[in-house]
Amino acid sequence: MRNGVLPGLIGSLALASCASQSAPRPGAGMAWSLAQVDGEGAKLAYGRPQSDDVLVMLTCAPKSDLVRVSTVAGRAGAKPSLGLKSGDRAQRYAADAAPSGVGDGVLLESSVRPDDPVLARFAASGELALDAEGQRTALPAADPAQARHFIESCRR
User: Fold this and answer.
1) Shortest CA distance to 140 belongs to which of 50, 34, 25?
2) pLDDT above 80 for 14
3) CB 55 within 8 Å of CB 30
4) Is the model's pLDDT at 142 over the cut of 90?
5) Which long-range contacts (C-beta less than 8 Å, at least 24 apart) are formed by 37-42?
């Protein structure tokens, strides 16, 4: 999954960190978008359409049984982690951290199974909140049909 997707993803998320080194915030014109890319799989992102201003991106290879959650944070702790919350379900996940390529920001990536309780709740409701090293962001709800389609495409 890291082969061709990662450089573009790092660039997209790094540019989002340019706008603010503080907690990422949903803004005017931002929305959820779902894309199915031949050879790369599904991508569900929250950001400005047709731009590199992305707050969070979920990716998976078809039927891989693994969802990659990516975002940019201002810093990474000694043990980088990423938190997700949907409704009454919340979980912290170990994260890989890499320089974002812009300023002092870091790219955080966690691998989560599509049957994880938080992602299962997201698939049912479209609700998702993100905690990137203490930077909390409640995202507007995704269309539940879109969230469900994305999660289903990741399952074996």
Assistant:
1) 25
2) no
3) yes
4) yes
5) 39/4, 40/4, 40/5, 41/1, 41/153, 41/154, 42/150, 42/153, 42/154
Token reading at 72: 């940019």
Q: Is 10 helix (H, G, I), strand (E, B) or coil?
A: helix
Quote the pLDDT of residue 24: 53
**What contacts 13, CB < 8 A, 6 or more positions away?**
54, 57, 70, 71, 72, 100, 107
Backbone angles phi, psi at 40, to 5 degrees: -120, -25
Amino acid at 98: A
The CA-atom distances, in angstroms, between 93 and each of 84, 89, 117 are 8, 13, 13
Residue 36 has pLDDT above 60, yes or no: yes
Residue 77 CB neighbour total at 10 angstroms: 12
List, edge to edge, every strand of the sheet that includes 128-132: 89-94, 81-86, 128-132, 135-139
Q: Nearest-CA neighbor of 142 among 1, 26, 15?
A: 26
> What are 154's two structure tokens?
């990741």
Contacts of 75 (CB under 8 A, 6+ apart): 104, 106, 133
